[in-house]
Design goal:
It contains 13 helices and ten strands. 40% of the residues lie in helices and 18% in strands. With 329 residues, the chain is of the alpha/beta class. The radius of gyration is 19 Å and the shape is globular. Helix 6 links the parallel strand 6 and strand 7. Helix 1 runs antiparallel to helix 8 and helix 2 crosses helix 11. The strands form two sheets. A five-stranded mixed β-sheet has the order 2-1-3-10-4, with helices on both faces. The protein has a five-stranded mixed β-sheet with strand order 7-6-8-5-9. 52% of the residues are buried.
Length: 329
C-alpha cells in the first residue's frame, strides 16, 4: 500500500479513534482496570492514560514495550480518545489518571479554571522550519509563496481558535502579512489535502502522516507554522489533575520518571520509534520511514509554553492573562 492509499487507512484510524472504545490500546501488563493509587509492597499500580492515535504519542507506547513503566511499578493502560478536548474532562473526572493534549488546549482549560498540572513533555516541533512534522501545504502552482501571502486567503485547520490558528497568525505577522484577513475553515486532517487540491481552501495545515500524504499527491510545502514560529516549540504535554497530584504525588513522580525515560529513548532510537507505530496506527512500512518525526525530549520548553499563552491572549482565546506556572510542573 502506498502513501496515497495511506490516506484512507489514516482516515479509518481517526474514525477508530472517534469510537473512543480504546480498542487499539495497550497495557504494560495483563490486568489494567483504572485506579487511582495503591502502589506499595511491590504491588503494581494500575493507571489509565488517555492518548490520541497519532505519531506524537509513540514514546509512551515504546516506553510500555520497554518496561519503563513496569520498572516504576506502574501498570499502564493506554486508552484512545478523539482529542485533547475529550481527554481533559476524562482526566478531571478521574476516568483517566493521565492524559495527552496540545499545549494551547491545556492553557484554554487552565484559563477556564480547570485544575490541571503538566507532568511531562509530550512532543515538540523540530528545530528545522523547512522539515517539521507539521506545516502548511498549498497547490503546486499556487501564488502563495511565503507565509505573508496567506493573508486574505481561506486556510484549513483542524480546530478553530487553537494552537494552529495562533501559530499561523504569528507566522504570517512575522513575515509582514495581516493575519486578521485570513478566513479559517475547520476540517479534519484526513480531508485537508483533498480540499486544497479541489480549491475549496487555498491552503491547509496538516501534521504527519497527512503532510507526507499531501506531498506525495503533489502539493507544495510552504513551511512549518510551528518550528517556523519557534524551533522546538512545545506542542503537547502529558498532564493530570491538580487533585491527583495532591493525593498521589508519589505515583506522579513515578509516571514522570518513566515518561521522561520513554521520551529520551524514543529520540535516541528512532528506528525503534518508527517500528512501534503499527502497534497503534495502520501506517505501512513505506509510510513509517517517510514521515518526519517530531522532536522528543524530557525537557519541557517552558519559554514556548509562555509564547503560546501570549499568542492565545493576543488572538483573544483567553479572557484574561494565563498564569502558565499553574499548569507547568
Amino acid at each position: 500500500m502506498g502513501l496515497i492509499a495511506l490516506g484512507a487507512t489514516s482516515a479509518l484510524l481517526l474514525a477508530a479513534c472517534g469510537s473512543g472504545d480504546g480498542s487499539l490500546g495497550t497495557s504494560s501488563s495483563a490486568s489494567s482496570s483504572a485506579a487511582g493509587g495503591g502502589s506499595g509492597s511491590g504491588a503494581m499500580t494500575p493507571l489509565t492514560v488517555g492518548v490520541i492515535p497519532i505519531i506524537d504519542v509513540a514514546p509512551i507506547y515504546l516506553g510500555v514495550d520497554q518496561g519503563f513503566f513496569k520498572d516504576e511499578g506502574l501498570d499502564v493502560k493506554l486508552e484512545l480518545a478523539q482529542g485533547g478536548a475529550a481527554i481533559v474532562p476524562a482526566v478531571v473526572s478521574g476516568q483517566y489518571q493521565f492524559g495527552f493534549s496540545n499545549t494551547t488546549s491545556l492553557l484554554l482549560a487552565t484559563a477556564k479554571g480547570l485544575p490541571l498540572k503538566a507532568v511531562a513533555s509530550g512532543n515538540q516541533a523540530t528545530d528545522d522550519p523547512a522539515k517539521d512534522f507539521g506545516g502548511v501545504v498549498v497547490k503546486q502552482d499556487s501564488p502563495i509563496k511565503s507565509p505573508k501571502d496567506l493573508a486574505g486567503k481561506k486556510v484549513g485547520v483542524n480546530n478553530l481558535n487553537n494552537i494552529m490558528t495562533t501559530t499561523i497568525n504569528k507566522w504570517v505577522r512575522d513575515d509582514g502579512g495581516d493575519p486578521s484577513t485570513i478566513q479559517y475553515t475547520e476540517l479534519p486532517f484526513p480531508d485537508m489535502a483533498a480540499a486544497v487540491a479541489k480549491g475549496d481552501i487555498d491552503a491547509g495545515q496538516v501534521v504527519e502522516p497527512f503532510l507526507t500524504i499531501a506531498k506525495s499527491q503533489g502539493e507544495r510545502y510552504l513551511g512549518s507554522n510551528l518550528a517556523g514560529v519557534e524551533p522546538g516549540m512545545q506542542i503537547a504535554l502529558y498532564f493530570t489533575s491538580a487533585s491527583y497530584v495532591q493525593e498521589h504525588g508519589d505515583i506522579v513522580k513515578k509516571f514522570t520518571a518513566a515518561m521522561n525515560k520513554s521520551l529520551d529513548y524514543a529520540q535516541a532510537h528512532q528506528d525503534e520509534t518508527r517500528a512501534i507505530l503499527p502497534k497503534y496506527t495502520k501506517l505501512d512500512a513505506k509510510a513509517q520511514q517517510a514521515v518526519t518525526l517530531p522532536k522528543w525530549t524530557s525537557e519541557i520548553n517552558t519559554d514556548s509554553v509562555q509564547l503560546l499563552a501570549d499568542l492565545g491572549t493576543q488572538d483573544g482565546l483567553f479572557t484574561k492573562k494565563v498564569d502558565v506556572s499553574t499548569l507547568l510542573p
